[in-house]
């Protein structure tokens, strides 16, 4: 009995520590997303529209359209935030890991029942989990499409880093939602496989647009992708991470570091590009 209790406590401790690390990485990625959107993607889109002889304010409205698209998908059509936090139990919400929220008892329940594909701890329905999959899927598609639209290796590397830092929080939220939904193990694997395929699909779509659709189409998609990045950085990451009273100074430092480092690297990369 005592060994089982120790095992559960170690699982909870490991979960909390991993959530803290994910939280810091998520805050840093928020700064990366914002810095890339305002310092690289929007100027790139504006230049593309100016070269095409179109008004310079059009890309800003397209950026706003990209923001509104993701806002509609996540907050209106599917309400992904509430689905993520359904059934957290006892009302003790803990946002340190970005989105996957659980107290000690629900963590233990997920760990105990996840392998059998059924956890009734939160009472989430399979429908809610699938809705969350759709919302995060659109999200992932837009993010990786921006990666495919990258104009050089440095910007592609920065985008890949920002997505890589942000993705674990979304994947963890989706996994916990599936484990709580009562879906079978086979169904969970199937839906997670679908989710994992959306990233490469978005990347391929972005590359195709960049290669074959011309500069104006490229500028349009970059402007809309910038709106997605602003949503992720400002509305999603900052709102989620700073709801919790824990580690606010550390999170703010990580957020600021993401902005400053990416701004410097972007400026350095553009200087090299102009010199070449």
From TrEMBL:
<dbReference type="GO" id="GO:0016020">
    <property type="term" value="C:membrane"/>
</dbReference>
<feature type="transmembrane region" description="Helical">
    <location>
        <begin position="191"/>
        <end position="213"/>
    </location>
</feature>
<keyword id="KW-0812">Transmembrane</keyword>
<dbReference type="InterPro" id="IPR003689">
    <property type="entry name" value="ZIP"/>
</dbReference>
<protein>
    <submittedName>
        <fullName>ZIP divalent metal transporters</fullName>
    </submittedName>
</protein>
<keyword id="KW-1133">Transmembrane helix</keyword>
<dbReference type="GO" id="GO:0005385">
    <property type="term" value="F:zinc ion transmembrane transporter activity"/>
</dbReference>
<feature type="transmembrane region" description="Helical">
    <location>
        <begin position="21"/>
        <end position="38"/>
    </location>
</feature>
<feature type="transmembrane region" description="Helical">
    <location>
        <begin position="251"/>
        <end position="269"/>
    </location>
</feature>
<dbReference type="Pfam" id="PF02535">
    <property type="entry name" value="Zip"/>
</dbReference>
<feature type="transmembrane region" description="Helical">
    <location>
        <begin position="58"/>
        <end position="78"/>
    </location>
</feature>
<feature type="transmembrane region" description="Helical">
    <location>
        <begin position="219"/>
        <end position="239"/>
    </location>
</feature>
<keyword id="KW-0472">Membrane</keyword>
């Amino acid at each position: 009995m005592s060994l089982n209790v120790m095992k559960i406590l170690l699982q909870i401790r490991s979960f909390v520590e991993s959530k803290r690390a994910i939280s810091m990485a998520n805050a840093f990625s928020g700064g990366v997303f914002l810095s890339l959107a305002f310092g690289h993607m929007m100027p790139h889109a504006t230049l593309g529209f100016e070269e095409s002889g179109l008004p310079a304010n059009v890309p800003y409205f397209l950026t706003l359209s990209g923001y509104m698209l993701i806002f509609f998908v996540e907050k209106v059509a599917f309400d992904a935030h509430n689905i993520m936090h359904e059934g957290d139990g006892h009302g003790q919400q803990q946002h340190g890991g970005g989105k996957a929220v659980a107290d000690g008892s629900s963590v233990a329940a997920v760990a105990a029942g996840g392998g059998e594909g059924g956890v009734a701890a939160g009472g989430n329905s399979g429908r809610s989990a699938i809705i969350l999959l759709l919302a995060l899927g659109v999200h992932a598609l837009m993010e990786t499409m921006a990666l495919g639209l990258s104009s050089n290796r440095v910007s592609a590397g920065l985008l890949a880093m920002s997505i890589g830092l942000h993705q674990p929080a979304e994947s963890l939220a989706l996994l916990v939602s599936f484990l709580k939904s009562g879906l079978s193990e086979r169904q969970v694997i199937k839906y997670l496989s679908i989710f994992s395929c959306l990233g490469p699909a978005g990347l391929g779509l972005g590359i195709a647009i960049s290669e074959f659709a011309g500069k104006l189409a490229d500028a349009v998609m970059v402007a809309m992708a910038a709106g997605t990045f602003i949503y992720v950085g400002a509305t999603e990451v900052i709102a989620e991470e700073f709801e919790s009273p824990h580690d606010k100074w550390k999170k703010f430092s990580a957020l600021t570091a993401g902005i400053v480092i990416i701004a410097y690297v972007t400026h350095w990369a553009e200087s090299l590009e102009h010199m070449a």
